[in-house]
Write a structure and sequence with these properties.
- It is a single chain.
- 41% of the residues lie in helices and 11% in strands.
- By secondary structure, it is of the alpha/beta class.
- The protein folds into 2 domains: 32-133, no CATH class; 148-360, Rossmann fold, CATH 3.40.50.
- The strands form 3 sheets. It has a 5-stranded parallel sheet, sandwiched between helices.
- Residues 40-57 have a biased composition (Low complexity).
- Keywords: Signal.
- Residues 40-72 are annotated as: Disordered.
- Residues 1-24 form the signal peptide.
Amino acid sequence: MARRGSGGLVRLLVTLAMLLAAVAEEATVAPAEIGVEHAPAAPAQSASEEAPALASETEAEQHNQPPPQHLLPRPLIIELPSEAAAAAREAAAGEGQDEAPADAVAATLELEVQVDLVPAAPAQDAFENAAAEQYQHLPRPLVFEPAVDDVPADVRCASWRLAAEANNLAPWKAVPAGCAAHVRDYIAGAAYRSDLDLVARESTTYARAAPLRGDGRDAWVFDIDETLLSNLPYYAEHGYGLELFDHQKFDRWVERGEALAIPSSLKLYNEVRELGFKTFLLTGRSEGHLDITAENLKKQGFHDWDKLILREACDCKKTATVYKSEKRKAMEEEGYRILGNSGDQWSDLLGWSMSARSFKLPNPMYYIP
């Protein structure tokens, strides 16, 4: 009797252990929908090492099914370090789950990383612990932004020259001290001549296609200094624009009548005249320099212009933009159509009564408002 009673007690204990294991399997908490999967709990064992597990085939299939589509990880994944994984295992154990193998936990503890690297959402469930807080803000892209002081001087000066040519600078009176050598090398080198040649070629292409009416009223306006004639010998002696402009010194240079023709501009001038344009030379030089200016132009190959316009006494206090706009307006009032305009200063081209097409020649040596 004692032997049979003992056997019945063993069977009763085994049955109770099997029932407890089944209840534990059914009580497993479903993973929260935050992009984190919990590792499946290990099969419960009975008090006896020889007792079989009671997990059904249906439950095993549920554990092996892939997660829903909205829970799948995105292409960029980071894995929590071992400390966070350990904390997650402790949290899982606190919820009544058995400890899963370390590799299974590491495989499931993956956190989505948004492609645009915005701050991650606050951690939830198993991640509500101090170890996961460090991942709430993900690293931003590494952007290399050199300091301005690290940019070579020649690069800074090239940027300054481009801004000056594009009329993006505030009115300036002299070339920056650190850019004098850059301006000198540009003006005295091949780049300046190449830029002048390109402007002349584009101007010629436009002039040949312009719709002239043949009534003698189609006009082209030319500035003189640094447009038709070059004052490079003067500016070479005065720092290529590094020195502040001195009207008296420049007037003495003008009176020598030694300015040189810009070859590409002379070619354009002759082409425009042959096409039938009226040529108006509009300069900021004072009227007292009329004769020497005309002589200098002829000596350099410029002939047969229709008008040579210089500043009168009443124009002395006007800006170049106002003065030249008024003169162009007077041309229009006389019945002329201004189809082209060439100048090295924006004040040669802007204002009112502007031409149908304007061509800006390069000049980083000085600025005239």
